[in-house]
Amino acid sequence: MHTHRHRPHINLRVERWHRRCIYASFAALLLSGAAWLLARYFFRPVGQFGETINPLEPWSMKLHGAAAMAMLFFIGSLMNAHIRRALKAGRNLRTGWGMIAAMLALTASGFGLYYLAGESDRPAWSSVHWVIGLAAALLFVLHVVLGRRAVHHP
Predict the structure, then answer these.
(1) Per the domain annotation, does 3 fall within a domain?
(2) Domain with 55 in it: what CATH number?
(3) 74 lies in which domain range?
(4) Number of domains in the chain
(5) Rounded to an integer, what is the distance from CA 24 to the centroid of its chain?
(6) For the chain, is the Cβ count within 10 Å smaller at the N or the C terminus?
(7) In a domain, 10, yes or no
(8) Cβ within 8 Å of residue 51, ≥6 positions away
């Protein structure tokens, strides 16, 4: 006989306004980071003295920093409303823990880029940051899709 411990249904759905703020913050982070990557590595203008900085680079970094602050705020706001309840319910934990790890790594590497990296190690910090950032975007989509699927197909 198979015994199955029944867990009470816990609503993990994030309210519409909250979800939209998180999606907007994530989109702003992804788009501003991608804009910087493209401007930095593919669209550097060549001037009289060689490659120069694309004007999009500093603007995309400013937007990226602002979006990062917003995202940190909204991640914090998820602690009680979503994360604590998901842990209690035991639902979507793999991608949830993956998101937490990715956000911690992005926060740490972003801090490192801004405050710790010197000219010699900046490329390494940057590579780590944007590789994790792009992976986090895919993980975020997977987390949302699996979470919605779990609600519709328990």
Answers:
(1) no
(2) 1.20.950
(3) 16-152
(4) 1
(5) 11
(6) N
(7) no
(8) 44, 45
